[in-house]
Write a structure and sequence with these properties.
Number of helices: 17
Largest sheet: 4 strands, mixed
Strand order of the largest sheet: 1-2-4-6
Order of helices and strands: HHHHHHHHHHHHHHHEEEHEEHE
Number of strands: 6
Shape: globular
Length: about 425
């Protein structure tokens, strides 16, 4: 394990370097149909994977996202087995939790308190109530974290990496693998979370890689596992009302304080109430309206979307996204064979007026370049985005343009769209 920790530290160094050389812009090259498909797939996985936990069958660990499970079941057979061996107490707690999650936010006087917090409290109370009945929850149906025994027990949680293995080439192979996989998952998660952000902000990907690199260096130095951005936690954060990075900071603070001071209370939380929270989160990620929305965008958007959903569901996130990307690239190449693309920027009048004239064909491959151009426009500028020559503008580029127009006023920039349609 200390050798693995050294690989984690080195992976953090690699991520730090990736951020410094601006490799985070890779995230701009993932088409929205694939990102939306990934989000929908994560939502489906949450629903399918959490149903057994909501029924009180916890033979598989709660974070398993793979189709084939370690308990020799698969995603669908696990649900069938859970229905046959459900726990009355777990079902009651999960149903009550779902009802609270749906109703609580609709009551204005109560909405100030996050519904998931109430669900956790209700779950603990439910555990105590059912403990005195014929249907108590078992220990394996509740959260289980280590209970620290004094300061020495706390220090015993830390493990230092084995720096004597710096000459071991296998350490560098593992470190590079961790860095690449974690960075790709992070960039995908950032693109996905930006889409569910109510304010439609654009996350700084390079800063995220730098921060994550520093985090993995720190984690490896104290005996922790490698870290990465994840959609599930981030979407739960957004759904709970989180709007700034302080919500992520407090998330870590509460985790640490809970581990140190109230582990016995945390261990009274039933997994069924946590499953209820994730079930509702999963539904919001894979709502029926999303499938209808992608269908109305056309086959070139809908097919990669559906393929990504199915591929992620039956493989894993990276493989599924890779398959979705291949399908999306096929449609892109088919379009580009008919119409080559370019973009041109012209200045008209004084330096305060900038005209951006879009080409006849603008594909999602232009997204990164257009994003850079828009980001670097100086404050207090009048910008005209002219689409009079455009026969086709990819939905990703349109989304970038409309989001920029929506947020440009914060920099004193006035954006005018000429002949830019909402759909092409």
């Amino acid at each position: 394990y200390p050798t693995f920790l050294l690989a984690v530290v080195l992976a953090g160094v690699f991520q730090l370097i990736l951020g410094l050389i601006k490799a985070g812009t890779i995230g701009n090259y993932f088409p929205s149909s694939v990102i939306e498909g990934m989000l929908a797939a994560i939502g489906l996985i949450l629903i399918l994977k959490q149903l057994p936990h909501a029924l009180g069958v916890d033979t598989d660990f709660s974070g398993d996202e793979g189709f084939f499970q370690q308990d020799h079941e698969n995603t669908f057979s696990a649900i069938s087995a859970a229905i046959s061996h459900f726990s009355l107490a777990a079902v009651a707690i999960s149903l009550l939790s779902i009802a609270i999650l749906i109703i609580w936010p609709k009551i204005r006087q109560l909405a100030i308190v996050p519904a998931p917090l109430i669900v956790v409290i209700i779950g603990v109370i439910g555990t105590m109530i059912f403990a005195g009945t014929a249907y108590p929850l078992r220990a394996d149906q509740m959260v289980k974290i280590p209970v620290i025994d004094g300061f020495n027990g706390f220090l015993g949680l830390f493990t230092m990496p084995d720096f004597n293995q710096l000459g071991n080439k296998n350490v560098y192979i593992v470190a590079l693998t961790i860095a690449v996989v974690a960075s790709l998952e992070t960039l995908l998660s950032i693109e996905a979370v930006d889409k569910i952000d109510p304010i439609k902000r654009v996350s700084p990907t390079n800063r995220e890689l730098i921060a994550q690199g520093i985090g993995n260096i720190t984690s490896g130095m104290v005996g922790g596992l490698p870290m990465t951005s994840v959609i599930v936690r981030s979407s739960a954060n957004v759904n709970s009302g989180g709007r700034t990075k302080m919500s992520a900071i407090f998330h870590g603070v509460w985790l640490l304080l809970s581990l140190l001071f109230i582990p016995k209370i945390i261990n009274m939380i039933p997994l069924s109430c946590l499953a209820a929270i994730l079930l509702v989160t999963g539904y919001k990620l894979t709502r029926i309206g999303l499938f209808k929305h992608m269908y109305h965008k056309g086959w070139d958007q809908f097919v990669p979307f559906v393929v990504t959903v199915v591929a992620v569901l039956f493989t894993d996130l990276l493989k599924g996204v890779a398959i979705g990307m291949l399908v999306s690239i096929f449609y892109l190449l088919r379009t580009n064979m008919r119409n080559p693309y370019f973009y041109r920027i012209t200045n008209e009048g004084d330096k305060k007026n900038i005209r951006i004239k879009l080409a006849e064909e603008v594909s999602f491959l232009n997204k990164a370049a257009i994003q850079v151009v828009l980001t670097n426009i100086p404050r207090e500028t009048n910008v005209i985005i002219d689409g009079s020559n455009a026969r086709y503008i990819d939905p990703d580029v349109l989304e970038t343009i409309f989001n920029y127009k929506h947020n440009a006023y914060t920099k004193g920039i006035i954006v005018t769209l000429e002949n830019v349609q909402k759909h092409y």
